[in-house]
């Protein structure tokens, strides 16, 4: 299984209808959210389909940025 980071720019096997070939990864997990670099259209795609569709990584994202963008869930203190 390949390692993908938020901010990576990837080239997919098929071109987007707008003619764009490169996509930016916006979310990683069981599903990926990717955005077309040409027209800005974004979509969710399952990890299995995404990994089969990626031809190459054009530019790597920032690992530090990825680590900082993970949500932190703090429960608010409730008074009893």
Question: Tags for this entry?
Answer:
DUF951, 80 residues, alpha+beta, elongated, 5-stranded antiparallel sheet, 34% strand
Characterization of the model:
The protein is an alpha+beta fold and 80 residues long. It has a domain at 9-60. Helix content is 16%, strand content 34%. It is built from 2 helices and 5 strands, in the order E-E-E-E-H-E-H. The chain has helices at residues 47-53, 63-68; strands at residues 9-12, 22-27, 31-36, 42-46, 54-59. The chain has a 5-stranded antiparallel β-sheet, covered by helices on one side. It is elongated and about 60 Å long. It starts with 8 loop residues before the first strand and ends in a 12-residue tail after the last helix. The model has no long low-confidence stretch (mean pLDDT 83). This is DUF951 domain-containing protein. Pfam families: DUF951 (PF06107).
Secondary structure elements and their pairing?
Layout: E1 9-12, E2 22-27, E3 31-36, E4 42-46, H1 47-53, E5 54-59, H2 63-68
Antiparallel strand pairs: 1-2, 1-5, 2-3, 3-4
Oligomeric grouping of the chains: single chain
Q: What fraction, in percent, of the residue positions are helical?
A: 10-25%
Structure classification: alpha+beta
The total beta strand count reads 5
Low-confidence stretches: none
Instruction: Report the C-alpha radius of gyration, rounded.
Output: 15 Å
Overall pLDDT confidence: 83
Strand content: 25-35%
Count every helix, treating DSSP H or I runs of 4 or more residues as helices. Answer: 2
Give the helices and strands as they follow along the chain: EEEEHEH
The gross shape turns out to be elongated
| Strand arrangement, major sheet | 4-3-2-1-5
Largest sheet: 5 strands, antiparallel
State the distance separating the first and last CA atoms. Answer: 48 Å
Organism: bioreactor metagenome
Protein name: DUF951 domain-containing protein
InterPro entries: DUF951
Pfam family, one: DUF951
